[in-house]
Amino acid sequence: MDRAQKEKVVEELGQIFASSGVVVVAHYEGMTVAQMQDLRSRMREAGGSVRVAKNTLAKIALEGKPCESMGKLLTGMTVLAFSEDPVAAAKVSVDYAKANDKFAILGGAMGTEALDPAGVKTVAAMPSREELIAQIASCIGAPASNIAGAIGAPASNIAGILKTLEEREAA
């Protein structure tokens, strides 16, 4: 890898660290190619990505970024899992670590906050962006449906009373 290629990798990693909602660092020593491809496909389905990079280049890319404290995690065979959604990469990583003992989560970063393995698990337990949007939409929609029901209730009550009166007159 020549200097120009290294500079390009550092620039790409810098963009990843700056724009990602969460970055998870894990060891992947002993994983097969098929296992790594499985991890990549799961991460892609969730809207994230997986990147293997030289630790020295990743540390250079971290300089001046909000998540710079994560640099101490970059030792050994590390893989970076990241996503714009602050929860997606953490969820996939934690789920994958449960199924594969060769994938060990070291920690990560969420914005300026450095995360230890327990912190990554806590982030993974949070609802995703889509789930939060659905919850907010249901909270906003519930009062409107209650109002519509309250407005429609007198009309249905009046209709019931008129029907009862009509039946009495007919009898």
TrEMBL record:
Keywords: Ribonucleoprotein, Ribosomal protein, RNA-binding, rRNA-binding. One of its GO terms (molecular function) is large ribosomal subunit rRNA binding. CDD domains: Ribosomal_L10 (cd05797). InterPro entries: Ribosomal_uL10, Ribosomal_uL10-like_sf, Ribosomal_uL10_bac, Ribosomal_uL10_bac_type, Ribosomal_uL10_CS_bac. Signal peptide: none annotated. One of its GO terms (cellular component) is large ribosomal subunit. One of its GO terms (biological process) is translation. It holds the Pfam family Ribosomal_L10. Forms part of the ribosomal stalk, playing a central role in the interaction of the ribosome with GTP-bound translation factors. Belongs to the universal ribosomal protein uL10 family. Part of the ribosomal stalk of the 50S ribosomal subunit. The N-terminus interacts with L11 and the large rRNA to form the base of the stalk. The C-terminus forms an elongated spine to which L12 dimers bind in a sequential fashion forming a multimeric L10(L12)X complex. This is Large ribosomal subunit protein uL10. The gene is rplJ.
